[in-house]
TrEMBL record:
UniProt source species: Iocasia fonsfrigidae
Non-reducing end beta-L-arabinofuranosidase-like GH127 middle domain sequence ranges: 440-536
Residue span, Non-reducing end beta-L-arabinofuranosidase-like GH127 C-terminal domain: 538-650
Source organism phylogeny: Bacteria, Bacillati, Bacillota, Clostridia, Halanaerobiales
Gene3D superfamilies: 1.50.10.20
Transmembrane segments: none
GO molecular function annotation: hydrolase activity
Keywords: Hydrolase
Chain ranges of the Non-reducing end beta-L-arabinofuranosidase-like GH127 catalytic domain: 15-429
GO biological process, one term: carbohydrate metabolic process
Name recorded for this polypeptide: Glycoside hydrolase family 127 protein
SUPFAM superfamilies: Six-hairpin glycosidases
Length: 653
C-alpha cells in the first residue's frame, strides 16, 4: 500500500523475542508491575495520588452509573494508551487474565459508543450539544487517534475485532464530518495524533479513505483563514481553558503556516513531534517528496539546534514548548517524557524513509536517557518533566521552577506520560530490527532473537550482547532458507573505533560502511557468526557555544548513556564541582546498584566552602579540595533518595 515499496519496515513485534539486558528488564517491568499499577491508577486506587477517573468516565458514558465527568478533557486517551500497552504485552506474552481484563474494558468502550459511532466521554457526559466545536483545545481527534492505535494493536495481538470495529465506526463518522468537500468541516486537530493513527488504520484495513483523511489533516493545517480563529468566533469567543487564546497562538499548534513551509520546530513540543510523525507517515504512503523534505528540515532543526544531550525536547515549561534555537537551560528544562517518546517515533519513521544511522543514533539517545528517566526502577513512580539539574529547595520555593519535581510522582492529573512510556517499552521489540527487500538492518543492540521473511526467504538470527554496558555484539545465523541476503549493522556515531569479524575473520569496515551502517552482502549458512566490537570509552561531551548555559562545562557519556551526579554519592552543592581535563574516568559495573548499571568514577576538585566563614563575597583566590566523584546513568537518578542532580559539570584545564 506504500507510495514507495522500497522503504524500510519494522520487523513485527510478534517476530522478536527479547532475551535479557536493560531493555528486557524494562519490558518485563511493564508486564509485571507497570500495567497492573496503571490499571489501579485509572480506577483511582492509588493512595495519595492524583485521581484519574478515566474508567469511571466510561462507565458513566455507558450508562452503568450516574455522576459528573471528572478529569482532563483528554482523559480517554490514558485508557487507550493503557490498552495499547496491554496489546503489545499480549503479542509477546500470553496472559489470559490480562486479556480478559482488556476485553472487559473494550466491552465498556463499546457500550459507551453513541449510536452514530461517536466516542468521547467528555462530550457524551458534559457537553453533548457541543461536539466538534472546539477542535483547538478539547482533544476529540487526539483521543480518537490514541484509541485507533489501541484498536489496531489489539487486533494485531489477539485477532479480536471488537475494538477495531468500534473505532472504524467512529473514524467513518469523523471522515463524514471533515474534509475538503463543501458540506464538511474544514478543521483539523488542535493536538495532533490522529494523523499517524489513520495511517495505521489504513494499513490494517486497506481502506484508502483513512489515508486520504490523514493527508487532508496535514494539508489543511496552517491554511488561511485560520480554522481555529473561525471556530473561536462561532463559539462566541469562549475557551475551554481560561485565557487560553491570550497565550496560545498559531505557532503553539504548529498552524502558523502550511506544514510544507515549516522549517523550525515551534510551539507545544509533543503536538509538534506527533505532527512530524504523521507527516512522515503520509510522505511514505503517498510518495510526497515535498512533505519528506519538510520532515528533514524539521528533523535537522530539532536534533541539531533544539535537543538536549538526553534526547529531551521542548525546553520551556510555559506551554510545554519549543522556544528558539540553542535555548537549552538545564534547571528549568521541561523536556516532557512524551516529547522524548515521540522523538523515538519520529526517528524510526525518518530512518525507514531515509536509511541513515543518524536517525537511530538519536532514537537511541532519546530512549536510553530522556525516555527511561520518566519511570522509576519499581515502575510505580513517574517523571513528567525531565530536567538536567535539580536542587529540591529551588523546585519547592521558586515559581519559575514549579514545574520541576525533585522526585517522581505516583500519578498525575494530566497523566499522558505514564501510559505512553508503558506502550513504548512494551513494544520495544519492534524498534530493534528493520528490513526491506533482501536486507535486514540491526538498529538497536539488544539481546534477542528474530524470525522474519525476506522475499520468501525465512531467516532467524540470534543476537547476544550486554549493551549498553559494553559494546560487544554477537549475531548468529540460526536459519537461512536462502543463503543470499544483506545484514546491515549500525556503527553508532559515538563509536570512534569498531572491529568486525565474520566467522572469526576480520573484516575491513571502512570498505563496507554507508551512512553509518556496515553492509554485509554474502551467502550465509546456519551457524555463521558476526562479531561486532564497539569501543566504548568514557567521554567528555561539550555543547555548542550558542548553548550559553553550558559554556565551560562538560557532560559525561559512555556509549549511548548520559551520566549525572547525585547528591547521595557526591554531597551537596554539585555545581561547586570541577572536572579536570587530566582526570581519568573509569567505568565500573555494579550488579547491586539500581538494578545493575555501569557507574563512572574519577577524581575531581570542589570549591572549599569552609574558607568562607560566613562571607557572602570575597576578593581572595578561590580554594579547592580534592574529591572522588561517582556518576550514574541519568535515567536512574532519584531511585535511591531525593537530592540534588547535575548533568553538566564545570570543566577545568
Amino acid at each position: 500500500m506504500s507510495g514507495n515499496k522500497s522503504y524500510l519496515k519494522a520487523v513485527l513485534l510478534k517476530d522478536v523475542k527479547i532475551e535479557c539486558g536493560l531493555l528486557a528488564k524494562k519490558n518485563e517491568l511493564v508486564r509485571k508491575e507497570v500495567i497492573p499499577y496503571q490499571w489501579k491508577a485509572l480506577n483511582n486506587e492509588i493512595a495519595d495520588a492524583d485521581p484519574s477517573n478515566a474508567i469511571k468516565n466510561f462507565r458513566i458514558a455507558a450508562g452503568e452509573t450516574e455522576a459528573e465527568f471528572l478529569g482532563m478533557v483528554f482523559q480517554d486517551s490514558d485508557v487507550a494508551k493503557w490498552l495499547e500497552a496491554v496489546a503489545y504485552q499480549l503479542t509477546t506474552n500470553h496472559d489470559e487474565e490480562l486479556e480478559n481484563l482488556a476485553d472487559s474494558v473494550i466491552d465498556l468502550i463499546e457500550k459507551a459508543q453513541q449510536p452514530d459511532g461517536y466516542l468521547n466521554t467528555y462530550y457524551t457526559i458534559k457537553e453533548p450539544d457541543h461536539k466538534w466545536t472546539n477542535l483547538a483545545e478539547c482533544h476529540e481527534l487526539y483521543c480518537a487517534g490514541h484509541m485507533i492505535e489501541a484498536a489496531v494493536a489489539y487486533y494485531q495481538a489477539t485477532g479480536k475485532r471488537k475494538l477495531l470495529d468500534v473505532m472504524i465506526r467512529f473514524t467513518d463518522l469523523i471522515d463524514s464530518k471533515f474534509g475538503r468537500e463543501d458540506d464538511k468541516i474544514k478543521g483539523y486537530p488542535g493536538h495532533q495524533e490522529i494523523e499517524l493513527a489513520l495511517i495505521k488504520l489504513y494499513n490494517i484495513t486497506g481502506d484508502s479513505k483513512y489515508k486520504e483523511l490523514a493527508n487532508y489533516f496535514i494539508d489543511e493545517r496552517g491554511q488561511e483563514p485560520s480554522y481555529f480563529d473561525i471556530e473561536w468566533e462561532k463559539r462566541g469567543k469562549t475557551s475551554h481553558w481560561k485565557d487560553f487564546r491570550k497565550i496560545a497562538n498559531g505557532e503553539y499548534y504548529q498552524a502558523h503556516k502550511p506544514v510544507r513551509e515549516q522549517a523550525t520546530a515551534v510551539g507545544h513540543a509533543v503536538r509538534a513531534m506527533y505532527m512530524y510523525c504523521g507527516m512522515a507517515d503520509v510522505a511514505k504512503e503517498t510518495g510526497d517528496k515535498q512533505l519528506l523534505e519538510a520532515c528533514k528540515r524539521l528533523w535537522n532543526n530539532v536534533t541539531k539546534k533544539q535537543m538536549y544531550i538526553t534526547g529531551g525536547v521542548g525546553s520551556s515549561g510555559h506551554l510545554e514548548s519549543f522556544t528558539f534555537d540553542y535555548d537549552l537551560p538545564n534547571d528549568t528544562a521541561y523536556t516532557e517524557t512524551c516529547a522524548a517518546i515521540s522523538l523515538v517515533f519520529f526517528a524510526q519513521r525518518m530512518f525507514h524513509l531515509d536509511p541513515a544511522a543518524e536517525y537511530i543514533d538519536i532514537m537511541e539517545r532519546a530512549l536510553y536517557n530522556g525516555v527511561l528517566s520518566g519511570i522509576s526502577e519499581d515502575g510505580q513512580k513517574f517523571f513528567y518533566v525531565n530536567p538536567l539539574e535539580v536542587r529540591p529547595e529551588v523546585c519547592q520555593q521558586r515559581y519559575d521552577h514549579k514545574h520541576v519535581k525533585p522526585v517522581r510522582q505516583k500519578w498525575f492529573g494530566c497523566a499522558c506520560c505514564p501510559p505512553n512510556i508503558a506502550r513504548l517499552l512494551a513494544s520495544i521489540g519492534q524498534y530493534i530490527y528493520s528490513y526491506k527487500q533482501n536486507s535486514v538492518f540491526v538498529n538497536l543492540y539488544v539481546d534477542s532473537t528474530v524470525d522474519l521473511e525476506l522475499n520468501n526467504n525465512e531467516i532467524s538470527l540470534k543476537h547476544e550482547t550486554n549493551y549498553p554496558w559494553d559494546g560487544n555484539v554477537k549475531l548468529t545465523i540460526l536459519k537461512a532458507k536462502k543463503p543470499d541476503f544483506v545484514l546491515a549493522l549500525r556503527i553508532p556515531s559515538w563509536c570512534k573505533k569498531a572491529q568486525l569479524k565474520v566467522n572469526g575473520e576480520k573484516i575491513n569496515i571502512t570498505e563496507l560502511i554507508d551512512n553509518g551502517y556496515v553492509y554485509l552482502n554474502r551467502s550465509w549458512t546456519a551457524r555463521d557468526t558476526v562479531e561486532l566490537s564497539l569501543n566504548m570509552p568514557v567521554e567528555r561531551v561539550s555543547a555548542n557555544p550558542q548553548v550559553r548555559e553550558n559554556i565551560g562545562k562538560v557532560a559525561i557519556q559512555r556509549g549511548p548513556v548520559v551520566y549525572c551526579l547525585e547528591e547521595v554519592d557526591n554531597g551537596s552543592n554539585l555545581p561547586a564541582i570541577y572536572l579536570p581535563d587530566s582526570t581519568e574516568l573509569k567505568a565500573v559495573y555494579r550488579s547491586d546498584l539500581l538494578g545493575g548499571v555501569t557507574m563512572i568514577k574519577g577524581q575531581a576538585i570542589k570549591l572549599d566552602e569552609s574558607t568562607w566563614s560566613g562571607r557572602l563575597y570575597s576578593t581572595e583566590n578561590l580554594r579547592y579540595k580534592p574529591i572522588e566523584i561517582t556518576a550514574v546513568p541519568y535515567f536512574s537518578w532519584n531511585n535511591r533518595q531525593a537530592g540534588e542532580m547535575l548533568v553538566w559539570l564545570n570543566k577545568m584545564n
